[in-house]
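TASK: fixed-backbone design
INPUT:
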């Protein structure tokens, strides 16, 4: 069944709420913009995503160790990292609608529109010429396509130049030249573009004024940098080695929309890999491939993932690429891989006055290591998983009629509940007692659910909707020969097997090791 992308996204958002994955924060007070709470199934799925990431980093790499640093850090941390001076987004207000936008995003959307015109011309021509169509040739020679393409490329270039030079006036000129209108009101009455710092601040206890001003960390990475030598010394790691961390980050995003894609409070999974200067490009390439493999191991189709090099590099980077995922609203950044040079450690060394050097026994010299980082938003990963797993499909119901089922085809190791134990009917004491016994036996091994309410078909649908990969059904034959059926969520096949085999079968089908083995 094919669903329009806008409908698909809307359906996913309401499915998340209806089935206890994600609720708007403080909903009884009408919610808090771009802040969300994870419900009972949401927290399980999110924990499993974190577990998959953590195991892939820390357990599968002998030279990566984990930490859990505090959210609050000494305020000078953020001066050294560049966040106080440069963690800004260009903001522009529309004077008529009073709506606030990120200037760079307005321009990017305008570029996407121009690009869409190119694609439309190509599609039209493909239809017209049929099998004879040579797309590459058409793109190189068709005057209209060339004109649009040139405009898109030039605009992209101008945007990149303005962003790297912090040229707010230039962005304002681009908005005017592209004749961009407010998407809500259609008005072109814009304010000047100005910088807006994205860090949230708060005040420390009894220290008044600037001295006591603390920031909620906008990224987890700095907790790793300031602990670099502590970790290296206490674990006796030798370069190259990495430090991994999962934790909350906070950004006062100007435009927060698209559900959990852009939140003001979110979670990051970051790993900083410390390397000998001059070797960073080798590790950059290595981590690019490793991280793509981690995504592909989940069974995500390769066409839904792509690399996108950064057009304008951040102040600390000498190479950077995003892994983009095709969300229902298009390809967007899911993860970043950045070669951060020695920028962070050098700045901390300078501002703190403490040496942050590593003694390399092989070279017999001290140096500040270079860093390659991988940084992924846990919530974005959650949304990517949901977008890929959410399926509406037509299946035969109990009477053999077509029925629509909504199923979350999550990779079994990530599913919130691995196995549901269902007595065929509710009011047969010997069936329910047997089913409860199986549930009690299995629950210590993996997350299980016992459910006896409603007809069996409805109970299967409920488990499909939360992505439970296996359902064990206890029926009258169970009482005779000690076998149950095991229903597969995706194929709908039901296998009969002895009760004693269920534990091992489900364990082997839902084991995280399956993913870790494929992740490389
Ligand atoms: P964007 O360009 O989308 O604002 P970014 O380039 O600022 O993202 P990074 O600073 O590289 O993002 O952060 C690393 C990862 O953290 C991103 O790839 C994304 O998955 C996640 N992330 C960043 N900002 C948010 C947010 N506001 N809400 C949810 N996840 C986020």
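OUTPUT:
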């Amino acid at each position: 069944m094919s669903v329009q992308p806008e409908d698909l996204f809307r359906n996913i958002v309401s499915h998340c709420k209806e089935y206890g994955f994600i609720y708007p924060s403080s909903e009884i007070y009408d919610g808090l913009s771009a802040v969300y709470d994870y419900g009972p199934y949401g927290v399980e799925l999110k924990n499993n995503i974190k577990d998959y990431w953590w195991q892939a980093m820390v357990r599968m790499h002998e030279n990566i160790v984990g930490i859990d640093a505090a959210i609050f850090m000494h305020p000078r941390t953020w001066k050294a990292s560049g966040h106080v001076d440069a963690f800004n987004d260009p903001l522009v207000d529309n004077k008529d609608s009073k709506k606030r936008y990120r200037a760079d995003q307005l321009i990017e959307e305008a570029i996407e529109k121009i690009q869409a015109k190119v694609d439309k011309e190509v599609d039209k021509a493909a239809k017209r010429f049929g099998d004879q169509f040579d797309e590459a040739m058409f793109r190189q020679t068709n005057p209209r396509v060339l004109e649009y393409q040139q405009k898109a490329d030039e605009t992209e270039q101008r945007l990149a130049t303005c962003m790297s030079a912090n040229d707010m006036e230039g962005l304002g000129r681009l908005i005017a030249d592209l004749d961009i209108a407010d998407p809500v009101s259609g008005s072109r009455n814009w304010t000047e573009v100005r910088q807006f710092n994205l860090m949230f601040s708060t005040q420390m206890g009894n220290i008044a004024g600037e001295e006591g001003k603390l920031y909620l960390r906008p990224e987890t990475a700095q907790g790793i940098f300031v602990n670099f030598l502590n970790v290296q010394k206490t674990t006796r790691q030798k370069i190259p080695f990495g430090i991994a961390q999962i934790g909350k980050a906070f950004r006062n995003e100007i435009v927060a929309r698209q559900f959990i894609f852009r939140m003001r409070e979110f979670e990051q999974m970051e790993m900083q890999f410390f390397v000998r200067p001059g070797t960073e490009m080798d590790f950059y390439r290595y981590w690019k491939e490793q991280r793509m493999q981690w995504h592909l191991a989940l069974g995500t189709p390769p066409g839904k993932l792509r690399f996108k090099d950064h057009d304008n590099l951040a102040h600390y980077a000498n190479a950077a690429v995003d892994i983009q995922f095709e969300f229902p609203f298009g390809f967007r950044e899911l993860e970043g891989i950045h070669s951060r040079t020695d920028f962070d450690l050098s700045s901390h060394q300078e501002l703190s006055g403490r040496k942050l050097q590593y003694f390399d026994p092989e070279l017999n010299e001290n140096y500040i290591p270079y860093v390659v980082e991988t940084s992924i938003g846990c919530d974005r990963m959650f949304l990517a998983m949901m977008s890929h797993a959410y399926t509406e499909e037509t299946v035969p119901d109990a009477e053999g009629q077509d029925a629509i089922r909504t199923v979350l085809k999550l990779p079994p190791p990530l599913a919130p509940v691995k196995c549901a134990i269902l007595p065929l009917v509710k009011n047969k004491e010997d069936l329910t007692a047997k089913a409860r016994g199986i549930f009690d036996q299995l629950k210590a091994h993996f997350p299980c659910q016992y459910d006896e309410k409603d007809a069996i078909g409805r109970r299967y649908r409920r488990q499909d909707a939360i992505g439970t990969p296996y359902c064990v059904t206890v029926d009258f034959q169970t009482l005779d020969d000690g076998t149950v059926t095991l229903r597969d969520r995706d194929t709908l096949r039901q296998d009969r097997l002895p009760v004693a085999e269920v534990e091992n079968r489900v364990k082997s089908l839902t084991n995280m090791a399956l993913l870790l083995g494929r992740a490389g």
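COMMENT: Residues 219, 251, 253, 262-263, 266, 268, 333-336, 375-377, 379-380 surround adenosine-5'-triphosphate (CB under 6 Å).
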